[in-house]
Amino acid sequence: MKLSRDELKSLMKNKMMKAGLPEDQAETVSEVLTWSDERGYHSHGAVRVEYYSERIAKGGWTIDPKFNWEETGPCSAMFDGDNASGYVAAKMAMEKAMEMAKKNGIAVVGIKNIAHSGALGYYTEMAANNDLVAISFCQSDPMAVPYGGTEPYYGTNPISFAAPTADDRTVVFDMATTVQAWGKILDKRSRHLEIPSDWAVDEKGVPVTDPHLVNALVPIAGAKGYGLMMLVDVFSGVLLGVPFGKHVSSMYHDLSEGRGLGQMHIVMDPARFVGIEQFKKSMSQVCDELGEMSPAPGFDKVYYPGERAVMRREKAYATGGVDIADDVYEYLKSDDIHYNRYDHKNRFAD
Fold first, then answer.
1. pLDDT at 76 (0 to 100)
2. Is 81 in contact with 66 (CB distance < 8 Å)?
3. Which H/E stretch holds residue 261?
4. 60 with 256: CB under 8 angstroms?
5. Any catalytic annotation for residue 253?
6. 187 φ, ψ to 5°?
7. Is the pLDDT of residue 100 over 80?
8. Among 237, 47, 49, which residue's Cα sits nearest to residue 155?
9. Please, which residues bridge with residue 178 across strands?
């Protein structure tokens, strides 16, 4: 089903408001979800709304949070999200981090006690749109086997960075440290499609293509991805004093409880280094030189990070709208808040 941006955002916003989320918070969450879907990141878009609505309705998100911002130094701060929407907390923390970076050159902001915050690229792009560069890390619940191991210990533990250029391009890199994020498998489930054999394994560690047989995800590039998973968990878990590693709360264990997740934004002002104009000029040069490179066999071009996402967005609106799975659309337009499909399930909602 193809939907206009306004229709998609409105359906998601109204559903979460019906579940009990205040309008201003539902506006923020639905905006980030729309940002994801229109760029083709369907794993972090509308497919998440039913789960969020069930958790909101059951009290798992604090809907009247008492946020606390504590500056621990001229360039560091902690933001306590009171187990509210991670989208709202992560956006507010980024806004404050940008202010701090503009004032002092750099900001390192830890965010604790939050719910799921969606695609990290949205928040790093906020910084890039304000002539800043940013990195963001976020922990997630254990669903990936460490290199050489047999049991899940770390989560998909994503990393994102973004940087501005001298023109209308923005470099936005956003990746899970697993071969694919769990949301990608969730999206394949909703579309009744198989997954590639290198995405996940079953209980015996054997690769699977049926998304319903997934027992654990696998790290990218073996030991290197495993190391990156640990890096993310140290910065967004251990360093912030929230549960880490296998102790991170499950997304589906008890939807009436807060998850207490951690996240970190690191924001820098290029003006304090090479200077903003030179930085942006050089970033444009990088993008140009990559795009002018002769592509390898099977490729049409070397794209800079985030370029194809913008192309998918433009193509979507040029061809009738954002493509949403039929099952997801039917749920969004229904009168039901949720179908009790997630509470007290395992890490893969089974």
1. 98
2. no
3. strand 261-268
4. yes
5. no
6. -65, -40
7. yes
8. 237
9. 219
Residue the block writes with tokens 């990608």: 184
**Residue 332 · residue 12 · CB < 8 Å:** yes
Q: What pLDDT is recorded for position 206?
A: 84
* Cα 191 to Cα 194: distance, rounded to the nearest angstrom: 9
Strands 68-73 and 2-3: unpaired
Identify the pLDDT of residue 297: 97
CA distance 98 to 301: 33
Residue (of 253, 260, 255) closest to 84 by Cα position: 260
Alpha helices by DSSP H, listed for 39-172, are 49-57, 86-104, 121-128
Annotate 201-235 with DSSP letters as a single string: E-TTS-B-S-GGG--EE-BTTTHHHHHHHHHHHHH
CA distance 254 to 118: 19
Distance CA 70, CA 45 (A): 31
Answer positive or negative: Cα dihedral of 8, 14, 19, 20: positive
Beta strands (DSSP E) in 31-89 are 68-73, 76-84
Look-up of token digits 């659309």? 329
Strands of 133-138's sheet in order across = 68-73, 76-84, 106-114, 261-268, 133-138, 159-164, 170-175
Which amino acid is residue 182, in one-letter code?
A: W
Q: Quick one: pLDDT at residue 322?
A: 97
Q: Please tell me which residue in 42, 44, 116, 338 is annotated as part of the active site.
A: 116
Concatenated DSSP letters of 114-130:
E-----THHHHHHHHTT
- pTM of structure: 0.94
Say what the pLDDT of residue 203 is: 81
Residue length of the chain = 350
Q: Say yes or no to pLDDT of 180 above 90.
A: no
Instruction: Please state, as a whole number, how many other Cβ atoms lie within 10 Å of the Cβ of residue 101.
Output: 27
